[in-house]
Design a protein that fits this description.
351 residues; alpha/beta; Nucleotidyltransferase, domain 5; Dna Ligase, domain 1; 3 domains; six-stranded mixed β-sheet; five-stranded mixed β-sheet; 9 helices; 18 strands; 33% helix
């Protein structure tokens, strides 16, 4: 397999991983991140193309990346994903059925979207063999913007991926998290805690079963801290990273801690929305459960957060701190996969 650059466009940062997927492992040669300036990018839409291009060129040049073949991974509420069941058929017939079905399900004109799908399973209904199909529809103008971005940054576009698919590929590889193999008999919720959004990916029976986006994130915490402590958003973010302590054993005393109280109040709002999504997933089919949670993304670094979530939701909760299939090059130091999950999944290309 060829070496690739994968650029993961998050709501606050670009995360870049350079490497390749080879014989079930991801060989990482380089990794870096860069802040996206305010007003440049939001919900998958590039609002300032020139500044975004400057960011991409900067992260490539500053890290002396020579590879040109590039993958981008993104997430947006404009991307429509659905699971549908269709009669088993060859690829050409499936193409037509998927486009027809997605238009019936959703208020879209198929010609305005790039539609991709994958067969994730088989079933038999009434003696008829059927395919379980995951479908993703992305607006064509969004696809074109990212292709142009990569080209004008001096790269060769190889693929445009979405976070749910990247996560699915990464964690359906007999992947061990923190040295322990994922138990395919358990249902795991992988939660990406970003700056503007929280992405929930539910894996059941070793496959991606469900994904949803919550339009909340670290931005609300930073804003509340800035108001409560009379500081800028940048100062609030620094204080949050440095001083936050959410481990319940640290605040059992009666003494109030206004700073951490603000953070807990926002995290409680997150948990209320996460719980709603869990309940919806569980109610969809008899036997659906959530057995454990894995956290990744920028806000997963908040001190004490995993313990706070574990006690609040009564579900075992861990942060993703190592992946057995990720092999690091000799020059890479202090690499925590928790920040690069979407980019690592984007490196996995099947030939």
């Amino acid at each position: 397999m060829q070496n690739l650059i994968c650029l993961d466009f998050g709501s606050q940062n670009i995360h870049m991983v350079c490497g390749r997927y080879n014989k079930g492992n991801i060989e990482v040669r380089n990794a870096a991140s860069m802040r996206i300036p305010d007003g440049v990018f939001k919900d998958g839409k590039i609002d300032d193309f020139t500044k975004m291009k400057d960011c991409v060129r900067a992260i490539i040049s500053e890290n002396r990346i020579k590879e040109k073949n590039a993958v981008a991974t993104i997430q947006s509420t404009s991307i429509i994903t659905r699971d549908i069941v269709l009669p088993a058929a060859d690829r050409q017939k499936l193409d037509g059925m998927v486009k027809y079905e997605i238009e019936q399900y959703l208020p879209i004109v198929a010609t305005e979207y790039v539609i991709e799908y994958s067969v994730i399973g088989e079933t038999v209904e009434g003696g008829v063999k059927k395919y379980k199909v995951q479908v993703a529809a992305m607006p064509k103008n969004m696809v074109e913007n990212f292709l142009n971005l990569l080209k004008e940054s001096g790269l060769k576009p190889t693929a445009l991926d979405i976070h749910s698919n990247a996560v699915s590929k990464l964690f359906t590889q007999n992947t061990a998290i923190n040295v322990a193999n994922l138990d395919s008999k358990q249902t795991s919720a992988l939660i990406d805690l970003g700056y503007r959004s929280i992405n929930i990916h539910i894996l059941a029976n070793g496959k991606l079963a469900f994904s949803r986006i919550i339009n909340l994130g670290a931005r609300e915490i930073d804003y509340e801290i800035s108001v409560a402590c009379n500081m800028t958003l940048e100062e609030a973010e620094e204080k949050k990273i440095r001083d936050a302590e959410l481990d319940p054993k640290g605040y059992m005393e009666i003494i109030s801690d206004p700073f951490n109280d603000v953070i807990r109040a926002q995290v409680d709002t997150w948990l209320s929305e996460i719980q709603k999504i869990f309940q919806y997933y569980i109610s969809r089919m008899t036997g659906n459960t959530i057995d454990r949670i894995y956290l990744f993304g920028g806000s997963s670094q908040l001190k004490g957060l995993k313990k706070y979530i574990e006690l609040s939701l009564n579900l075992r909760t861990d942060t993703i701190d190592s992946l057995n299939i990720v092999k690091l090059g000799r020059n890479i130091k202090d690499f925590n996969p928790r920040t690069y999950i979407n980019a690592l999944g984007g490196l996995i290309r099947y030939e």
